[in-house]
Amino acid sequence: MTQNFIHTYVSVDCVVFGFDHENRLNILLVQRHIDVPERQKRLPGSLIFSNEDVDDAAERVLHELTGIKKMVQKQFRCFADPLRASNEHDIKWMEKEYKQQIDRIMTVAYLSLCKIDHKINSTKYDTVDWCPIDEIPSLPFDHNKIINESLIEIRRWIETDFSIIFELLPKKFTIRQLYQLYGALSEKYIDIKNFHKKISSFNYIVALDEIEKNVSHRAARYYKFDAKIYKKNNTKLIK
Amino acid sequence: MTQNFIHTYVSVDCVVFGFDHENRLNILLVQRHIDVPERQKRLPGSLIFSNEDVDDAAERVLHELTGIKKMVQKQFRCFADPLRASNEHDIKWMEKEYKQQIDRIMTVAYLSLCKIDHKINSTKYDTVDWCPIDEIPSLPFDHNKIINESLIEIRRWIETDFSIIFELLPKKFTIRQLYQLYGALSEKYIDIKNFHKKISSFNYIVALDEIEKNVSHRAARYYKFDAKIYKKNNTKLIK
């Protein structure tokens, strides 16, 4: 008896995080052409080609769909629920988009961190825009699940390598910005005073000779992240 | 024009680590039936079924091929090089094994940590056995690459969660065993005196009232890992 092995299409989906000027975590969504308004927004993603490796596909697709080039993307999970593409609207859209009858589709999800002011554009979709994480609508396929998993992954990533948090901040930032970002990423509440104390023990967060301008509250000092100092201190397996 | 999208078989491959009585890191390999002797050994792996999710497939395949049940397996990477299954011996073997003409095959790799005394058996393959990491032969497909990547992944995993190192040790262990295991996993050399000092600052590594018996060197004290104490101290994003 021949067993019924999977023979499937494979896509990549890209979860791109940004941190906006109101100190909120955002995710980049594209808007696809589909008649059902509530299923228009989705993660940037597409099928990979028959001669393409999956990391190359992630790079190509992110560029094609958002204009972002040369971004470090971390592959974090393969999503392969047999029913993940079984919604009738999604099936119709895939037929139109890919000119193929698609019965099942696996996806490999990627995670990346982007400065919110990065130039975004797209030739393929009308709209590519940031969406605050608290306002993410119901998305097609299992894209909501992918985003939830990506949040767990980004937390793990920061635990392994705290320096990646600075990818989301402007080059000069205030401790309040870092605190808000940390709060948006962490599941645990941390008191701002304790946070200040902790942060001041990190010699790779360097105070600049510059404070905020034109702000209604007391102007705060700017800091920068020093990657060299960080690297020197954080290369051991046991911390 | 219809673009040429991937339509592929997908497998899972399981990298199972063990730590032997000679203090060496090992990986579990199975031996497949193939006439070319130097391509017989491989990672435990198989195609997933058409109605199967990938994590379920990893659990099934590991059980079918090694007898190991209910092991935590961490999905760590999808390998999708278009040429990863292009060796003629591998193609012939796949045709015989799966009764399918297989043009391309993607694999999702899993990582797990196993006590070396865990019962291993297999109905499918003649031989399932541990192989010291320094003695791993040239393997079929990209299995050598998968093992190399899994070593990088296990290091990252230990950085995030040092407690997982104890999955590889017996319930009671000596500091020398922990040191040897740490040395096998780490890329950096650490002096045993410094290691002792570091370890003694970890309150979750608890000295037992018991020492080694029947050893030719000076009998060392046994220790155990206390998961509760570890968990209490290690739940913060910033350490």
CATH 2nd-level architecture of the largest domain in chain A: Alpha-Beta Complex
* Fourth CATH level, the homologous superfamily of the largest domain in chain A: Nucleoside Triphosphate Pyrophosphohydrolase
Just give the CATH class of the largest domain in chain A: Alpha Beta
- H/E series of chain A, N to C? EEEEHEHEEHHHEEH
Distance between the termini of chain A: 54 Å
Number of domains of chain A: 2
Number of strands of chain A: 9
Strand count, sense and closure of the main sheet of chain A? Answer: 7 strands, mixed
Structural class by SSE content of chain A:
alpha+beta
The low-pLDDT segments of chain A are none
What do we call the CATH topology of the largest domain in chain A? Nucleoside Triphosphate Pyrophosphohydrolase
Indicate the multimeric state: homodimer
Which descriptor suits the 3D outline of chain A?
Answer: elongated
Instruction: Report the helical percentage of chain A.
Output: 25-40%
Query: Largest contact between protein chains?
Result: A-B, 45 and 46 residues
Radius of gyration of chain A: 20 Å
Number of helices of chain A: 6
Give structural attributes.
homodimer; 239 residues; alpha+beta; Nucleoside Triphosphate Pyrophosphohydrolase; Arc Repressor Mutant, subunit A; seven-stranded mixed β-sheet; 9 strands; WH-like_DNA-bd_sf (chains A, B); WH_DNA-bd_sf (chains A, B); WHD_NrtR (chains A, B); NUDIX domain-containing protein (chains A, B)
Describe the structure.
The structure is a homodimer. Chain A is of the alpha+beta class and about 240 residues long. Chain A folds into 2 domains: about 10-160, Alpha-Beta Complex (Nucleoside Triphosphate Pyrophosphohydrolase), CATH 3.90.79.10; about 170-230, Arc Repressor Mutant, subunit A, CATH 1.10.10. Chain A contains 6 helices and 9 strands; from the N terminus they run ββββαβαββαααββα. The first copy, chain A, has helices at about 55-65, 90-100, 145-160, 175-185, 190-200, 225-235, and strands at about 10-20, 25-30, 40, 45, 75-80, 105-115, 125-130, 205-210, 220-225. In chain A, β1 (about 10-20) and β2 form a beta hairpin. The first copy, chain A, starts with 8 loop residues before the first strand and ends in a 6-residue tail after the last helix. The model of chain A has no long low-confidence stretch (mean pLDDT about 90). Chains A and B meet through β5 and α3 of A and β5 and α3 of B. Chains A, B: It comes from Chryseobacterium ginsengisoli. Chains A, B: InterPro entries: NUDIX_hydrolase-like_dom_sf (IPR015797), NUDIX_hydrolase_dom (IPR000086), WH-like_DNA-bd_sf (IPR036388), WH_DNA-bd_sf (IPR036390), WHD_NrtR (IPR054105). Chains A, B: This is NUDIX domain-containing protein.
